[in-house]
Write a structure and sequence with these properties.
This protein has 581 residues and is an alpha+beta fold. Helices cover 55% and strands 17% of the residues.
Length: 581
């Protein structure tokens, strides 16, 4: 093949190309995202709607039902679930994996607009939707606790300051604030007093809405001068609500304090968060798709001292959940396995070749193939995860084969006395077709995985592509860099023209013993062919039986150091009983 000869005759250019592949892989390795598993985005959209004061049955029939009716007309929906609580409804739409999430979002928005005429007229806001990935767990949860500052104030600071700052950081996708609610004034009406004064709930609601506004008041003009009226009618505390006049009864003024108890509280009293026995407000942080989890979490931890500076002095900021330790530990083990497998492969090659210069060629092929695969992973948008690194570990045993085949064939010509360049050209040309067929046959094994559909296909596609890429890169390296190294680095005396040393003679005796042992065992097997046939059939039957009875699962169980539990009480149990019990 003329293609191979070009690289053998130009060793400098071949060396530079090889170094460029290694440098590209090194840059890509630093830039690759880190995650426990390959990124699999489920086309899922969550729709939310709120109607304050409505019971769950009203939310299900008046809000959820019209929306669901319109959503059923959208193509590609595989599952639709809805949950209605007091004052809120949540509908989750899951689409087929081949459905474009952006196109699905446009269809959902159109369905919401179509259902608007069927929704209650007093709905404060239109239903909203957001794209979610149900397989993506929070990467970090930060808790705000204090013995002196109220939860309402902590929630206000967390939602107005910390949430905005963290959302702007690199790699952060969404930030939710939980465990509390924004400050608010709660008016708790006394039904007995309302009945006594013949006042309805609507009367009180209208007075509260009318007296607590912030609207433009106009202006005053006189001659050539003009004044803007900037009076603010908003009420900011419970004390300012108490003197509000509800109505007049028999010449007496009926104030809000006569029929209600007004307290400073929060918007939703049925939300609570507790960390180590203390009331807490929590920031739940999700990453962007494809972002580096470890880098993102570390960046947030680095700026936590700055967050503490903007908080009240009595508020403590602490991390209560961090996903990076188990991810870092598992990836560290896989990386060590990758390095160890590469070293073992090279040592085994050296034990059989018994020449340091000759071993250098397959060693370079393994290293360049692995580094070049990192560059391919970066171009394809893959990440460093357990599956992709496992593929690299498996690849270390494959990528060395092509280089060894080329090396052995070239060495055969060198031992006959052929010159280095002629031996490299002749040997590589002669074995090129065999090397190509070997590599393509290995890649063909992973074609079924590449063609798999569904979640499993998407999950293992990165494994198959990564392993196939490393094999194809090793094919190129074995037909370019390896022959060049055989022609320039390996000396003639390394192949028999020089007296062999102690290591060669010691290992040669071991190899001869292995050959004699194999010869004797082969003779026994050939003399008892019927017995060997029965043994083979028994082995096949046993393998099938073991495959049937062996435990099966999607992924091996992994200890992440976290325990999650749920408590379900009777339906008539109040929130206060569940929270404080």
């Amino acid at each position: 093949m003329k293609f191979v000869e070009i690289f053998i005759r130009r060793p400098v250019a071949t060396t530079l190309i090889t170094i460029a592949m290694v440098l590209a892989g090194a840059v890509a390795f630093v830039s690759l995202a880190v995650s426990p598993l390959p990124q699999v985005d489920f086309p899922t959209i969550s729709v939310s709607a709120g109607l304050p004061g409505a019971d769950p049955e009203t939310m299900a029939t008046s809000v959820a039902a019209p929306l669901e009716k319109q959503f059923t007309r959208i193509a590609g929906i595989t599952e639709m679930t809805s949950t209605s609580n007091r004052g809120s409804t949540s509908i989750t739409l899951q689409f087929a994996l081949d459905r474009d999430i952006n196109g699905a979002a446009r269809d959902v928005q159109a369905a919401i607009n179509a259902a608007r005429s069927s929704l209650p007229s007093n709905l404060p806001n239109n239903p909203t939707y957001r794209k979610v990935n149900p397989a993506d767990a929070p990467i970090l949860i930060i808790a705000l606790t204090s013995d002196a500052v109220s939860k309402a104030r902590m929630y206000d600071v967390a939602s107005s300051v910390l949430q905005q700052k963290i959302s702007q950081m690199k790699g952060v996708g969404q930030v939710f604030v939980g465990g509390g609610a924004l400050p608010a004034v709660r008016v708790e009406l006394n039904p007995t007093a309302l009945n006594k004064y013949n006042v309805s709930l609507d009367n009180v609601s209208a007075v509260l809405a009318r007296t607590n506004v912030n609207r433009p008041k106009g202006q005053i003009s006189e001659g050539g001068r003009r004044w803007e009226i900037t009076t603010n009618d908003q009420l900011h505390g419970a004390k300012e609500y108490l003197p509000l006049i509800i109505s007049y009864r028999n010449g007496d003024v009926l104030r809000l304090s006569d029929v209600a108890t007004v307290v400073d509280s929060v918007e939703d009293v049925r939300v609570a968060g507790v960390v180590n026995g203390k009331p807490a407000v929590m920031l739940v942080i999700f990453r962007q798709p494809g972002a580096n989890i470890i880098e993102t979490v570390q960046n947030i931890k680095d700026v936590m001292p700055e967050f503490k500076a903007v908080l009240p002095g009595a508020v403590d900021l602490a991390v209560v959940l961090d996903r990076t330790p188990p991810i870092t530990g598992s990836l560290k083990v896989v990386k060590h396995s990758l390095v160890l497998s590469g070293i073992l492969v090279i040592l085994v090659v050296f034990w059989f070749i018994r020449n340091a210069r000759a071993t250098l060629a397959p060693a370079v092929a393994v290293f360049v193939s692995i580094m070049g695969t990192f560059a391919v992973m970066y171009l394809l948008g893959y990440s460093l995860n357990n599956l992709s690194l496992m593929a690299m570990t498996v690849a270390t045993g494959f990528v060395v084969d092509d280089a060894i085949v080329v090396l052995e064939n070239i060495s055969r010509y060198r031992e006959r006395g052929v010159g280095p360049y002629e031996a490299a050209v002749t040997g590589s040309k002669e074995i090129a077709f065999t090397v190509v067929s070997m590599s393509l046959s290995l890649v063909a094994v992973f074609i079924p995985i590449l063609l798999m559909e569904g979640m499993i296909g998407r999950l293992f596609r990165e494994f198959a592509v990564t392993l196939s890429a490393s094999i194809l890169i090793s094919l190129v390296v074995s037909l370019t860099t390896t022959p060049m190294m055989c022609a320039t680095i390996i000396k003639p005396e390394a192949h028999g023209e020089k007296k062999h040393g102690f290591l060669y003679h010691m290992s040669e005796g071991f190899f001869n013993w292995i050959l004699r042992l194999y010869e004797r065992s082969l003779n026994v097997a050939l003399r008892h062919s019927f017995f060997m046939l029965c043994l083979t059939i028994l082995t096949a039957i046993t393998s099938v039986y073991m495959f049937i009875i062996i435990p099966k699962g999607f992924f091996p169980e992994q200890d992440t150091g976290r325990i999650a539990g749920n408590i379900q009480a009777a339906q008539d149990t109040s929130f206060q009983s569940m929270c404080c019990a």
